[in-house]
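Hi! If you just cloned this repository, the fastest way to understand the data is to look at a raw example. We've pasted two of them here, unedited. The first protein comes first, obviously.
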Amino acid sequence: MNEEIIKMTANESLEATAAAASACGVCGRSAASRLRRGPVSGGCASVPRSAKIMRSILIVVLCALLSGCVSAPSPGLSLKDARVVEGPVLIERSGHVYLRYRRALEERGLTLLSMLYQKKTGDAAYYFFSVPISHPEWGNLIERPLAYDGTEELARKGRVFWLDPDGSKHSIPLKEEPNHSMQRTRASRSARFEFEHHWRLARAADAERSVCRAR
């Protein structure tokens, strides 16, 4: 009775191995036909071997899947073809730097969205568009905070570029937010006006004291 159970277990393991080989396209039918001819002497010893075969098949499949998922993104759309009508420009506001741009929409048909990626190599940072994907581009003004990418200091050093698929790079200028510069200009004018006002008052007081002394 025990020998029959052992032989049945060995045959089931061998049939499972043949099915796995058939799923992988490695002569499954011939393997299954050979393994189904009858019980193998010493079947218990063949179970670890089949387990090793299954493990090897799983490792090969996983490596094949992972090798296609780790490829780094690369530029898929040039700055010219992306029809960027505003920017790209770096804006410094409240101590942080933002990448600002806006794309134009097609007059006819749907404009497809391209993802914005960045990479750092050495002492420079590069931003670029991916190939268009199956999502609409809305033409909104985009501001990407460079603090998320860790590239603010590179932007202040003038080391941030836009990268095209052919490898050409475009320098992205850094500008200060106009509203903040206007506020500082107004504050400067106000301080100057206040200084001149106090200076006139002091001159008037000195003149009045001089008249009193003369009397």
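Ok, and the second one:
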Amino acid sequence: MSAKIIQLRDAVIGAINGREFAGIQPESQASFGSQIDLYKNVGLVVRVVTGALTDHERETRASFVSAPRIDIGIGKKLATTAEADRIAEVDALLSFVEEMHEFLADATLQLETKRAICEVAEIDPLFSPDWFQKGEFLSVLSLTYRYV
């Protein structure tokens, strides 16, 4: 049996893959790096990373309750240099990120022996102006869960 946070990461990937958000069907992957290299990719990149374990409290003498965080990096090299086309592409990506956020915030994920419910979902940054200037889109979705 793998660690619960790894099970959670894999459950998030399973919930994302095969589903459509704002007309886009992503293919997410597990990652341990924090960098998304968009120069080698022309399509959408969705990386799911184990974030942190917070609120580590004793439940009983033998067990602890923690709040695991999963981070999802979403990046794409923008297809054009024309400002109006870039804005339209970013608008579509923002809709994609927002729909994924709403779906994962409401989803109950099944792990091997437990379920996980999202307690906190935030997008930061929702959109990076610095990356936009470089012709790239970047957004980070962070989800903090509770095991039930």
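That's it. A detail worth noticing about the second one: Residues 44 and 95 are 14 Å apart (CA to CA).
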